[in-house]
Amino acid sequence: MTTGKVTLLSAGPGDLDLLTIKAAKALAAADIVLLDDLANPGIVSLAPQARVIRVGKRGGCKSTPQAFIQRLMQRYALKGLHVVRVKGGDALLFGRAGEELTALRRAQIPVEIINGISSGFAAAASLGISLTHREHCQGVTFVTAHKQDHGEPNWAALAATGTTLAIYMGMTRIESLCQALLSALPALTPAAVVQWAGTAAERCWLGRLDHLAIDAVKEGLGSPAVILVGNAVGEAVNWVTHKESSAFAVAEQTSFNAWQDNAEAVAHAA
Amino acid sequence: MTTGKVTLLSAGPGDLDLLTIKAAKALAAADIVLLDDLANPGIVSLAPQARVIRVGKRGGCKSTPQAFIQRLMQRYALKGLHVVRVKGGDALLFGRAGEELTALRRAQIPVEIINGISSGFAAAASLGISLTHREHCQGVTFVTAHKQDHGEPNWAALAATGTTLAIYMGMTRIESLCQALLSALPALTPAAVVQWAGTAAERCWLGRLDHLAIDAVKEGLGSPAVILVGNAVGEAVNWVTHKESSAFAVAEQTSFNAWQDNAEAVAHAA
């Protein structure tokens, strides 16, 4: 059995201060770093002695095939090296970690997993809300809009749970997903988009579900972004009026106007 | 306006190495630390200059009332101090952060939120699985079994999403929740319990949904624990046979037996 190993390392949303201490230690000890597209490239400064190989694999773009990444990990680990596979967010959420773990187990290569902050959590922090405010919901569902067979998730079933929805990889099909959600949820359901959550480039849109598809795109928000939908998101309104972060500057006024409309419409409906 | 501020700090699942670097920096700069029950008490070593106040609030037990915790935060922040409110896991998931944020905003006290690793992620890492294996599901739902009005979540609706279920605070009502899930999901659905995920005291049970209520309790597993249910959990079987972690020693053999039963039953059914 090899003395090498693979660490599946979660790089979090981007801000290097949002790495765990455990992740920083693993990077410092790495021989090989396989770097994902969505991870902050500055992370390599924490792995000064490692050979860095970029293996970006963004949906739809030219990319390193998954099978090749898996072969790379195995090749270096079987040479006795410590391979750190860096993934954006938390490696265990939408990260193809399942397939990598299976391949590494088959090759009898020891694997360590280091958790991180998924961008849905960073998005909620940016909006100043809890993902699960107990007056509004009992949970949160993290779902990808991008299915393996190119179909859509069952949006009606997801809406029926009453949980906050944190939708990843949804910006390229925002129209169809909003349409599907609107057939199951009230038009006034609070909604938000946070692009580049947890990075210096972070931008937000905040409003209501029936404005989401048009207004968030009009604001210029695109991938990578997390879309949040649900009554817990409504708690963000007070926060936006107080928050002074420059990240909010772009979308703030429009968002707040949308919010005022929303509040007024709810008041009229009541 | 006060020069004080409050940091809602996510302490992660317990292992201090799973704190973010940002959290460690905030603790080092804290004047007051308000410490939650579920956070590792060793965390105070990272806040050497802070006054530490323990404000545990475990479900059902004798505890510090939420309103009192909020008053404490405000009082110290309004004195110009940097108050760090330490919460287990990620503060934005089942942590009453929503209420605390509202109260702090009303008092015009600046708030910073620092994300952390929620125990559901640590549980998946411990089992060596992705929460969302794309061959099995499009997402994961984090849900608390403990509703504000003491009712139950809509388990049938949750099951209908096809997402992995990560159930928090479920051990005290495991029988009723398993019964409800079994009316919506196949008896052979893979299930797991991870108690004290991401700590040195971590213990796991791994099996199938129809054995969960009896066997996990028979193994002595109780709160605090995360219950994982869904086909993505089935990927854990190979891992358990390879993993050498002592944390698995207690439950491993029983779990593996349960798994073999499961695999055989599935084979017979096919």
UniProtKB/TrEMBL annotation, chains A, B:
Pfam families with a match to the protein in the record: TP_methylase
Domain of life according to the entry: Bacteria
Biological process (GO), any one: siroheme biosynthetic process
This protein's UniProt keywords: Methyltransferase, Porphyrin biosynthesis, S-adenosyl-L-methionine, Transferase
Broad class of enzyme this protein falls into: transferase
GO molecular-function terms, A-Z: uroporphyrin-III C-methyltransferase activity
EC identifiers of the protein: 2.1.1.107
Pathway given in the UniProt record: Porphyrin-containing compound metabolism; siroheme biosynthesis; precorrin-2 from uroporphyrinogen III: step 1/1
Stored PROSITE patterns: SUMT_1
Domain Tetrapyrrole methylase: 5-212
Family the UniProt entry places it in: Belongs to the precorrin methyltransferase family.
Family annotation (PANTHER family): S-ADENOSYL-L-METHIONINE-DEPENDENT UROPORPHYRINOGEN III METHYLTRANSFERASE, CHLOROPLASTIC (PTHR45790:SF3), SIROHEME SYNTHASE-RELATED (PTHR45790)
NCBIfam families (UniProt xref): cobA_cysG_Cterm, PRK06136.1
Protein name per its UniProtKB record: uroporphyrinogen-III C-methyltransferase
Species this chain originates from: Caballeronia mineralivorans PML1(12)
Lineage: Bacteria, Pseudomonadati, Pseudomonadota, Betaproteobacteria, Burkholderiales
